[in-house]
Amino acid sequence: AKSDSSCSYRIFDSGIKDARAERRALEGALKAALENKELDLFYQPILDLATNQMWGCEALARWKHPTKGMISPLQFIPTAEESGLIGPMGDWILEEACTTAMTWPQPLKVAINLSPVQFRSRDVVASVRTALEISGLPAHRLVLEITESVKLTEEATAALKKLKALGVSIALDDFGTGYASMSYLSSFPFDKIKIDQSFVRNMLTSADSRAIIKATIGLAKDLNMSTTAEGVETEEQLNALRLAGASQAQGYLIAKPMSREAIASFIADVPKP
Ligand code: C2E
Ligand code: CA
Ligand code: CA
Ligand code: CA
Fold it and tell me: Where is the EAL domain (predicted)?
């Protein structure tokens, strides 16, 4: 038993070392990726359900690794956050997305995801202001998406208020998946709620998901907020969301996230607001 436990201890220990080494390697590769411009943004169209026209796009980060291919943001954003790289990376994302949105027809907006770390360790207001200045994008065409993982401290709330004062809109992402959604909503006047795709995925089979979606849309209306339903993959879901009164829809049914070039031709091919 003794040799067993020392053996498992060794394995455990080397496992930790491997995980640390792996994280350091990933951090190094990510830093190089930022310098070598391997980071990229894809754009997913969002449909306005009132007009049936395009509302704009959400910018979604991608890492085009030279040998490993396309790496998902779910795999590298957490490492970027832990290492502090999300700071410069987030600034680049803001600037790149705003610059791209400037090439789109006037009414189209761009939604950009902000990490909680950008609120803690960065003057996020200065970053956004710089991106707007460099790109020339009018503030009303920019929506910033945050999740409940942004702790609404006095500082964070003050930053959000300053962003709204600039003319930027603020959306609450992944609504309904956190533990504090309701208190969160009452802490700050969000402009938009993004209904998480888990509810949309189940809405046709689960009465509970339907009830949550219906209640969320009603709540948003009473609070003067709009709603975007995420992860819309079927016509049936789209019709049900339309009936429920969602403002916008986003998902593979409308289009998958695509490159800057592909979104330009997508926009050229669809009816414009
Ligand atoms: P999110 O903000 O909730 O973004 C929506 C995710 O759902 C995207 O995944 C999108 O590709 C995916 N999606 C869209 N439509 C459908 C659909 O119909 N079905 C399914 N199954 N999925 C759909 P993606 O691009 O892998 O991004 C994952 C997450 O990574 C994002 O979730 C966001 O939290 C984070 N992320 C992405 N880009 C950035 C960024 O630039 N900065 C920060 N801080 N986080 C980002
Ligand atoms: Ca988002
Ligand atoms: Ca989301
Ligand atoms: Ca999410």
Answer: 23-271
Task: Please name which ligand lies nearest the alpha carbon of 171.
Answer: 2
Residue 251 in contact with ligand 1 by CB distance below 6 A: yes
Q: What is the 3-state secondary structure (H, E, C) of 72-138?
A: CHHHHHHHHHHHCCHHHHHHHHHHHHHHHHCCCCCCCEEEEECCHHHHHCCCHHHHHHHHHHHHCCC
Query: How far is Cα 196 from Cα 239, in angstroms, rounded to an integer?
Result: 17
pTM for the predicted model, two decimal places: 0.93
In the reported structure, the alpha carbon of residue 134 is separated from the centroid of ligand 1 by a whole-number distance in angstroms of 26
Residues in the chain: 273
Tokens of 90: 């987030």
